[in-house]
Fold this sequence. Notes:
The complex is a heterodimer of chains A (119) and B (108). Chain A has 119 residues and is mostly beta strands. Chain A has strands at 3-7, 11-12, 18-25, 35-41, 48-54, 59-61, 69-74, 79-84, 93-100, 106-109, 113-117.
Amino acid sequence: QLQLQESGPGLVKPSETLSLTCTVSGGSISSSSNYWDWIRQPPGKGLEWIGTTYYSGSTYYNPSLKSRVTISADTSKNQFSLKLTSVTAADTAVYYCARRRPAEYFQYWGQGTLVTVSS
Amino acid sequence: EIVLTQSPATLSLSPGERATVSCRASQSVGSYVAWYQQKFGQAPRLLIYDASNRATGVPARFSGSGSGTDFTLIISSLEPEDSGVYYCQQRSSWPPFTFGPGTKVDIK
């Protein structure tokens, strides 16, 4: 059974960079036809897709965040990561990692990790 | 960007009643809509994909319909464990994938 687990600092200062890692178990992130996504949810609000990396290395980002986001994969550790620069309080959210196949939906999710942006 | 709206925002029903949640897209998305259930403190769970197909392990009381711009999620007979927030999501045109704002279902 595929499992995903987010990790990273729970508190980030304004203007700094938010960095999170998603560790995948029960499957390889380099296996074909998998997208590895990041989605976030501000407290009490809805879901926002951040971006994705494909097994081939291609990346796609939400245009609203594109200038600040980098998603990358480390196949040796079976992990993928999210970096979000110049954070503000508006970036406070639960961040989820997820797996999606082409022409499919977000079937596997991590449990989520709360990141608070505050000085 | 395709915008999804949902109605109602909140639904309060008794066990055994039928719940109907609507999702409308700002432009046609074909049948490329999914529904997710999110319980408090948990990650969303995929319920319905491509408008009308139940995901693995989803009870038969959950059903979806629609195409184009209008979609519906029906829970035919509510169980206490169906309490949560339900989101629609489109994959017709991305990036970005977009979600509806959610419908909260309360079981009285």
